């Protein structure tokens, strides 16, 4: 497998965690979202992913984009360890939380949007992450065990940790979100979350390396 990734991309990080948890070895092709006006806009990368976004994963003779679609494929083809619970209610909760983050928070503070917002980008990012986290904190108070849904790591957790990292990057006050903070801390102790961390990627700049 070949993963087209950017060290700081939260969507790429979700997929890196899934690959690590499932023990799938892969090669990384770094796509720098800032260099050369954004390497994702190159003709070469557009041929890989017409949406010109990371991640993209070449695996089993196909090329997939969109982090959750990639994780679903990995779950369907390499089911151990499981990232979606067997129980239909818990499975729905996992998908709800993953979508809440992947559709309801992250796109509003991604690079392309913040460029358009301009000088108020920090305030914009803080507001949208905070409003998403207010809802997420309430949801997690009903679903969480050690992790987002019960005591097993799930697709929801793969979305949570990179989004908390984004929140910290944009200096969001995490005080009002004790459940999010507790789960994030527990997840960051797991090896798959450590090895996939932005500070430990082949394209991580020297000054940001762990």
UniProtKB/TrEMBL annotation:
Name this polypeptide is given: Maleylacetoacetate isomerase
PANTHER family: MALEYLACETOACETATE ISOMERASE
Domain (GST C-terminal) ranges: 87-206
Recorded GO CC terms: mitochondrion
Catalytic activity of the protein: 4-maleylacetoacetate = 4-fumarylacetoacetate; RX + glutathione = an S-substituted glutathione + a halide anion + H(+)
UniProt-listed PROSITE patterns: GST_CTER (PS50405), GST_NTER (PS50404)
Location within or outside the cell: Cytoplasm
Domain GST N-terminal: 1-82
Gene: Gstz1
Keywords: Cytoplasm, Isomerase, Phenylalanine catabolism, Transferase, Tyrosine catabolism
Known pathway: Amino-acid degradation; L-phenylalanine degradation; acetoacetate and fumarate from L-phenylalanine: step 5/6
Cofactor requirements of the protein: glutathione
Listed EC numbers: 2.5.1.18, 5.2.1.2
Family that this chain belongs to: Belongs to the GST superfamily. Zeta family.
MF term (GO), any: maleylacetoacetate isomerase activity
Keyword Transferase set for record: yes
Organism: Piaya cayana
């Amino acid at each position: 497998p070949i993963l087209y990734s950017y060290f700081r991309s939260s969507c790429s990080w979700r997929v890196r965690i899934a690959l690590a948890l499932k023990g799938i070895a892969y090669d990384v092709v770094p796509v720098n979202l800032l260099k050369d006006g954004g390497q994702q806009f190159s003709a070469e990368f557009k041929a890989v992913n017409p949406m010109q976004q990371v991640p993209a994963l070449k695996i089993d003779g196909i090329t997939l984009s969109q982090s959750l679609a990639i994780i679903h494929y990995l779950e369907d083809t390499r089911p151990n360890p499981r990232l979606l619970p067997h129980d239909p209610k818990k499975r729905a909760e996992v998908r709800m939380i993953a979508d809440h983050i992947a559709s309801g928070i992250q796109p509003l503070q991604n690079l392309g949007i913040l460029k358009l917002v301009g000088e108020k980008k920090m305030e914009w990012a803080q507001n949208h992450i905070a409003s998403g986290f207010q809802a997420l904190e309430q949801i997690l108070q009903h679903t969480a065990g050690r992790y987002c849904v019960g005591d097993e790591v799930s697709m929801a957790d793969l979305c949570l940790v990179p989004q908390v990292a984004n929140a910290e990057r944009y200096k969001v006050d995490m005080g009002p979100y004790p459940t999010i903070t507790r789960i994030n801390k527990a997840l960051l102790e797991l090896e798959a979350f450590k090895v996939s961390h932005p500070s430990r990627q082949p394209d991580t700049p020297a000054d940001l390396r762990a």
